[in-house]
Amino acid sequence: MWLTQLLERNRQCFADRVALVDEHRSVTWSEFAERTAELARGLAGLGIARGDRVAVLSQDRIEVLECYFALARLGALFVPLNHSLAVPEVAGIVERVGAVAVLGESDLLDRHPVLPGSVRIRLAFDKPAFAALGTVAAPVELPVLPDSEPVAVLHTSATTGRAKGVTVDEGSFRAIGLGWLAVARPDDHVVMVNCCPLYHGSMVVSLTYLAAGATVVLLPGFTPQKALAAVERHRATHMWLVPQMLRFMLRAKASHSTDLSSLREVLYGAAPMPPDVYADAVARLGCGFRQVYGMTEVGGPFVTLGPDEHPAPAEVAERIPCGRVVPGMSARAVDRTGREVPRGQIGQIVVRGPGLMQGYWDDPAATREVFLDGWAQTGDLGFVDEDGRIHLVDRSKDLIIRAGQNVYPSEIERALLAHPAVRDAAVVGVPDEDYGEIPLAYVVAEDGTGERELLTHLAGNLAPYKRPRRIEFIDQVPRNPAGKIIKKLLRDGD
Predict the structure, then answer these.
(1) Mean pLDDT across the stretch 381-402?
(2) pTM, full prediction
(3) Which domains does the chain have, with CATH numbers?
(4) Residue 441, strand partner residues
(5) Distance from C-alpha of 492 to C-alpha of 440, rounded to nearest angstrom
(6) Model confidence pLDDT, tens digit, residues 72-94
(7) Could you give the percent of the chain with pLDDT greater than 70?
(8) DSSP letters of 316-372?
């Protein structure tokens, strides 16, 4: 009952201090705890019970975290949904987890008028029914839950491109949270602007700082202007973002006129920090930097490099080390057989510890595949130096990291092949100054097929961040004798 316990303790210790802020309102720890209890009673009154799955479809706002905590108190599993997913993608996730309810913002819910038959409750945050939920509900006896109780299904993507549900328990949140806090040592006067979405493993960073009594400021979608204004308005001490967000902020005209002097630490992760962005940020912000390396399957942020360990910009050759694992977690580099390689030698980074997921939701085969002798495989290539720091040197060869979000070429290829005029397709990542990498599609198609036609087709089937910016038409996709696409030829030819 980690989430319930941290909420109750902070209510006792910091009752009148602000816990959460969004564009519409703020709530104190006392108000946060009271509303969570109301929601738990109200949702129970609607028939939501222990073990049920409840999807949440919303941009970042206070109600999202109120629902997460309320569902955890009930023993129901919250299932955050990426609000930018296309209609078929959302429906597929809801169906696979058997969600009994969908909660969220009305404009997002309206995009999905038809959902799988398991859904019997739809509630919009911005409607009177949700506001009244639990306010007149009779007290109900809520279960006492062990930390091994599943609390959430957080979705990521497997190498096949299909979203996989990562089942995590309260013990995972607690292990990562306590390990992180032991290293980062934030005080309870931290004000953190969270620029990252609350629908995947990155939300664990916010939960961790909430456990320390921090105030978390939520942004309903990132823009440089919103992020800069939030830092100034709330005198934020910390920010949590991906490097490309930092690049956009530094480029914004408002960055020169915004008072950012309150910042003590910028947390960044999900993609390597470009040396030029780091150098500019150090010069412009004058604060510390903390790298976050994590993976949803291992509980979120399990490795960090603190401000005191960051090199000076002039000393960064290619990439900044990721850092060391937090207490309680273990990581090492292994060869293909799972044998640990010597320090400094490149292998796949594998992880174990109490932060690990219970498994992929209803997918035992995929769960077995990701574990190697009890260690979770990250798919990242890197090495561990003599001081225990993890250095990443590459990712799984086909994965595209677009502004910190994983894009799988096979998913785009399948969507292209669903068009009747497409005969073959291959997708690779190409460098992009703004986003790090973007997908580029190579297509073999019938004569007369245009780029605009295919891009429109993809827009109906894929989230915006997954869509290629352009399509190149070719006569033949290069393949080896086994039929596998030789993507190196496409990358080299671009």
Answers:
(1) 85
(2) 0.84
(3) 2-304 (3.40.50.12780), 400-493 (3.30.300.30)
(4) 427, 471
(5) 13
(6) 999 999 999 998 888 998 999 99
(7) 96
(8) -SS----BEEPTT-EEEEE-TTSPBPPTT--EEEEEESTTS-SEETT-HHHHHHHEE
